[in-house]
Amino acid sequence: MAGIVISGLHKTYPNGAAALQDFHLAVADGEFLVLVGPSGCGKSTVLRCVAGLERPTLGTISVGGRVVNDLPPQERDLAMVFQTYALYPHMTVFDNLAFGLKMRRRPQEEIGKAVAAVAEKLGLKAHLHKKPRELSGGERQRVALGRAIVRQPQAFLMDEPLSNLDAALRVKMRTELLKLQRELKTTVLYVTHDQTEALTMGDRVAVLHSGRLQQVAPPREIYDHPANRLVAGFIGSPAMNFITARITGKGDGLVLHLGGQTLPLPGDYLERRPGLKNYQQKNLIAGLRPEHFLPLTGARRGMLGRLKIRVEVLETLGPVNYAHFSLPDPLAGREAAAWVAALDPTVPAAPGQDLEVAIEPRHIHFFDPETGKAL
Amino acid sequence: MKRSGVSVHLATVLFILLSFFPFFWTLLSSLKPASQLFQINPPFWPQPCTWENYRAIFLERRFYLNILNSVVVAGAATGVCVALGSLAAYGLARLRFRGKSIILGFILVVSLFPPVAIVSPLFLLFEKTRLINTYLALILPYLTFALPLTIWLLTVFFRQIPWELEEAARLDGAGPLRAFWEVTLPLAAPGIFTTAILTFIYCWNEFLFALAFTTNDASRTIPVAIVMFSGYHTVPWGQILAAVTVVTVPVAALVLVLQRRIISGLTAGAIKG
Lengths: 375, 273
Prior knowledge:
A: 2 domains, six-stranded mixed β-sheet, elongated
């Protein structure tokens, strides 16, 4: 096992497209790090550069303290799980699992033992003589994992390994994969576009957007304190709501203007959020997660923030209702911002209905309108 | 529905009979004595059945030498063609480089030269290099005509094999050639079989070069040898038919044995595996 250190990685394709710019990332020994971002953000390029399938334009990559830039993939001692599994269709499951050991000229006996052990662990024992096309999606996925595990490589690279599975199986494999990783204590660099996978699986999460690393942090911190508007908008489902807002007044008269409405803020708000000091009287972007709309009942009646909304569409999911509504956005000079509120099913709501919801000011995120940086 | 099924079957049977009949008639006629071949109304079945024509071509004409020549020339040309062609096609399918389509176009152009136009210059060349009457004199020109087809067909086949399989093999510890040998080549086998068969049949049947670059009976290939059976005064039809039967059987057998692979080769990519 070993850590992976990527520093100053640039990748520019021959057609001039820059896939990665100044990318730094250190995956600690035994860590499960998830690299997440929308499709086309360059996350697969990172993985392929680490694997040696693609040459970085600039920068160094080291595995276990050894710089591997000039090593061909077969000498990097890494294992990769592909989105399509890439099982060898003309070989049996046994041969698929044994291939890596065979290439390393291990003795027959050792290969047999290692494959048997992995097959046992992954529940593939009954399938060893089958060809990949006779297996179900989940079984193929397990063979692909087994092929990576059997060699005991320095680290695993996983390229959206679960995205070809159906939803139920994906959730199951998510936990299985995690259990396996905890057991093997392997270093994993895991690439996905699915922010749920990122938040549930990663020891740390790295968010990549348009070839630039936006933030690396544990899932909770990424969620609670996104570094900028891109991260805030990408992590969380449904996505965070944004609108242009402005803070005016002083002391007990401190208010937040947004969506043509005014929300009073506590007098010490600016002391607790020093980043906002220089943004009084100026436009800034306010963000609020859908789950931070509270029903206006009981004790909360006296709370500070209240927002009047008119429900346009109501999605009932069972444990939660998503109320879609629009807020006018006069400060940005645009018609309206489309917002979503996750409401408790006990809150009576129907399409077309006017509703008042409560907002706790501490839940509001603020971002610089130009740079998008969190304030 | 049922009626159309029956008529399709009938049409198929009729088609098979029609296309098979000439060969069948060749076989029957090769077993007839010369007297029956030239009757106004020849009998359908040979009576009596005679092996005289076969005896004559093998013992008097040493036709086995010509068969050997054809096997060596077609076999060698096919072998070299598949070996070089698969490597070239692999490169063209996998690598990204400038002028790839120009190269592919150029390869195609090579095969468009009418053979007749290059027979004379090639003859002069082979005479100067003393290659006339050698196997090389046929293998080399066959390669130039068969390789373009091989490269084009195999390029398509290699493109259909997911790149990721090789990448997986590379990460599993195989070098580039090893990955090609262990993963890509077995998967391209149907395509390679198909191109090999097509190349072999082309070389087996080729006439023009074989006629021009061989000058004695011992170095001729089958098609030329059969034509040379005819003398000034007689055309030994019986022997010609016997020879045709002898040389058609191996090719037909080869195709029948490999037909499943050929079919899967020709239709590969039509349905997603």
